[in-house]
Amino acid sequence: MRSHKLDRRIALLSSTSSINDLGESVFSWSTNMSVWAQVKYRSGSEDFSDGIEVNTQSATFIIRYQATLTTKYRVLFDGNTYDIEAITDPRRKELMELECTLIEV
Length: 105
Description:
Elements lengths: L7 E12 L5 E25 L2 E13 L9 E4 L2 E9 L6 E8 L3
Antiparallel strand pairs: 1-2, 1-4, 2-3, 3-6, 4-5, 5-6
């Protein structure tokens, strides 16, 4: 893949924990790294669950290989946060495809 196709900037978020004033563990997401990506929207659907409309949006983010990246990370793109469902390595340590689902807030 040519680098000109990696034309979108995304943030890869990792979970961090801290202790609040009450001594409780609090988890939050912080930017671990920002990378260039190609974005491909795969599908979207609407469904009803317990009378509530549920929208699902899936996207694939293609990035340069990152050895430390796992499905425990999240992707932040264009103001939306995505869960990483799967990571494939079609070009053996050159590129990675992140199969993601939009997190509805």
